[in-house]
Automatic annotation (TrEMBL):
The keyword Isomerase does not apply. GO terms for molecular function: kynurenine-oxoglutarate transaminase activity; pyridoxal phosphate binding. This is Aminotransferase class I/II-fold pyridoxal phosphate-dependent enzyme. Keywords: Aminotransferase, Pyridoxal phosphate, Transferase. It holds the Pfam family Aminotran_1_2. Transmembrane segments: none annotated.
C-alpha cells in the first residue's frame, strides 16, 4: 500500500459537487450549484463552430490577442478607464484559475491573506496551498453581510500580503457601494497590500445599481488582480474561460504562474468570444434578465414562513428558514433534496466557524417554470 501525507487533509468534495450529485440521485430540481439551466445564445454556438475550423492549436500563453483586445475594449468602455490589452489582460481557464494564479504568484509561506466569510469555497484552500495563512473575518446576516471596514484595519499585520474580496457576492447576493470602495481604499492606502477581487458576477447587479468594481478606484486598481469569468456572463460555465485584469507589474507575475498551471486556454473558444464580446447588448441586458428571475422566485414566498433576504446582485437568493425549522442548514438542505426534491446550498459551509444561521442559498439562473415549481414545493414544507 503506497501512502503519503495529504496536502489537504481537511478538504472534502466541494458542497457544489455533493449537492448536485444528491440532486441527480433524487431527481431533484437543482437550485444548488451556480450554473444556468438554459443554453447560451445560438450566435455564440455558431461562432464556436466557425472557429473550430483552423484554430485548434495552442493559443498564446497570455491569450489570443483578438480576445484580449475585445476584453480590454469592453472593460474600458464599461468602466470608462484605460485598459492595456498587451500588458494588463490575461486569458485563463476560468476564474478559478485566475484566483489560483493570483494568490500563488504573490503569497509566500507565512503570509497572511484576509478574506470575508461567507467566502467562496475555493479561497481558503488556495491560500493554504500557497503556504499562506487565511485570516477570516465573519460577516453578519443581520447586517446584510456588509463589511465593517474598521474591523479590517484591526486585522492587518506586517505579514498581511493580500485581501480577497467578492462583489457581487456568492453566496449572499450582497453588492458593494462606491462608499465601500472609498473605505477599502483608506484601509490599504500607504501599504503594500495586494487585492484579489473576484468579480465574476460584474454584469448581474439589480435595481439600477452600478457594479462597484475595484477597477473604478485608482488606489485599489493599482494593487488589484481582478478575476473574471465569461461563464457567468454568457451562460457558458462549461467553457471554463476567464481572465485576470491587473496592472503591468502584477500581470507579469501572474503570467509566470499561469504558464505553469495551464499555459494557455482553449483556442477556438477564445476566438469565438473575441467576436461575441464586441456587442454590448450581449451583456448589458443581463441584470434585467436576472432581476426578473429574482423577482419571480422571491415573490412566491410572500405570506410564507420563509424570509427572503436581500439579493442585490449575482444569481443567488438566500432564504432564512428560522421560522420553520431548527435544523442545521446542512441537514435541511439534504432533507429538502430527498423529500421535496429541491436542492439548495447551506450557507454555513462558506464560514470558517458556523455562525448558526438558518439560511439556504438558491440559484435562480433557471427556467421560470423550474423556479415556480421549486418555490411551490418549498412553501409546503413543515
Ligand atoms: C464567486 C465565484 N468565483 C469564481 C467562480 C468560478 O468561476 P469559473 O467557473 O469561471 O472558474 C465562481 C463560480 O461559481 C463563483 O461563484
Amino acid at each position: 500500500m503506497i501512502s503519503f501525507p495529504s496536502k489537504q487533509p481537511q478538504v472534502q468534495t466541494t458542497i457544489f459537487t455533493k449537492m448536485s450529485a444528491l440532486a441527480l440521485e433524487h431527481g431533484a430540481l437543482n437550485l444548488s450549484q451556480g450554473f444556468p439551466g438554459f443554453d447560451c445564445a445560438p450566435a455564440l454556438q455558431e461562432l464556436l463552430q466557425h472557429y473550430a475550423k483552423g484554430h485548434n492549436q495552442y493559443a498564446p500563453m497570455a491569450g489570443v490577442p483578438a480576445l484580449r483586445q475585445s476584453l480590454a475594449a469592453k472593460t474600458s468602455s464599461f468602466y470608462d478607464i484605460p485598459v492595456d490589452a498587451d500588458t494588463e489582460v490575461t486569458i485563463v481557464s476560468g476564474a478559478t484559475e485566475a484566483l489560483f494564479a493570483a494568490i500563488h504568484c504573490c503569497v509566500s509561506p507565512g503570509d497572511e491573506v484576509i478574506l470575508f466569510d461567507p467566502s467562496y469555497d475555493a479561497y481558503d484552500p488556495i491560500i493554504r496551498l500557497a503556504g499562506g495563512i487565511p485570516i477570516h473575518i465573519p460577516l453578519k446576516a443581520s447586517n446584510n453581510f456588509a463589511i465593517d471596514w474598521s474591523s479590517v484595519t484591526a486585522k492587518i499585520t506586517p505579514r498581511t500580503r493580500a485581501i480577497m474580496v467578492n462583489s457581487p457576492h456568492n453566496p449572499t447576493g450582497a453588492v458593494w457601494s462606491m462608499a465601500d470602495l472609498d473605505a477599502f481604499a483608506q484601509v490599504v492606502k500607504g501599504t503594500n497590500i495586494l487585492i484579489v477581487s473576484d468579480e465574476v458576477y460584474e454584469h448581474i447587479v439589480f435595481d439600477g445599481a452600478q457594479h462597484a468594481s475595484v477597477l473604478l478606484h485608482p488606489e485599489l486598481r493599482k494593487r488589484s488582480f481582478v478575476c473574471g469569468s465569461f461563464g457567468k456572463t454568457y451562460h457558458i460555465t462549461g467553457w471554463k474561460i476567464g481572465y485576470c485584469i491587473a496592472p503591468k507589474f502584477l500581470t507579469a507575475e501572474f503570467r509566470k504562474l499561469h504558464q505553469w498551471v495551464t499555459f494557455s486556454s482553449a483556442t477556438p473558444l477564445q476566438y469565438a468570444l473575441a467576436e461575441y464580446l464586441k456587442e454590448p447588448a450581449h451583456y448589458l441586458g443581463l441584470s434585467d434578465f436576472y432581476q426578473k428571475k429574482r423577482d419571480l422566485f422571491s415573490s412566491q414566498f410572500v405570506g410564507s414562513r420563509w424570509k427572503v433576504l436581500p439579493s442585490a446582485g449575482s444569481f443567488f437568493q438566500c432564504l432564512d428558514y428560522s421560522a420553520i425549522s431548527n435544523e442545521k442548514d446542512v441537514d435541511l438542505a439534504d432533507r429538502l433534496t430527498r423529500e421535496i426534491k429541491v436542492a439548495s446550498i447551506p450557507v454555513s459551509v462558506f464560514y470558517e466557524t458556523d455562525p448558526g444561521d438558518k439560511i439556504l442559498r438558491f440559484c435562480f439562473a433557471k427556467e421560470d417554470e423550474v423556479l415556480v415549481e421549486a418555490a411551490k414545493r418549498l412553501i409546503q414544507i413543515l
